[in-house]
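EI: anyone free to look at a 52-residue chain?
SC: sure, send it
EI:
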Amino acid sequence: MIEWTRLATPQEYGCVTPEEADKWIEYIGEANHSGRFFHMLTSFITLGQKPA
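SC: here you go
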């Protein structure tokens, strides 16, 4: 489920209206329930050590 809070920042900057956000959340929910939604997140973790 898409979290509403993740859309707060785009709305604050005026990128999307509350109505557009609602429509987008509804669209993603419908796609998810019908098996047409795929989400993938790639992330990297790095570790470094400062030489002595």
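EI: Residues 31 and 37 are 5 Å apart (CA to CA).
SC: 👍
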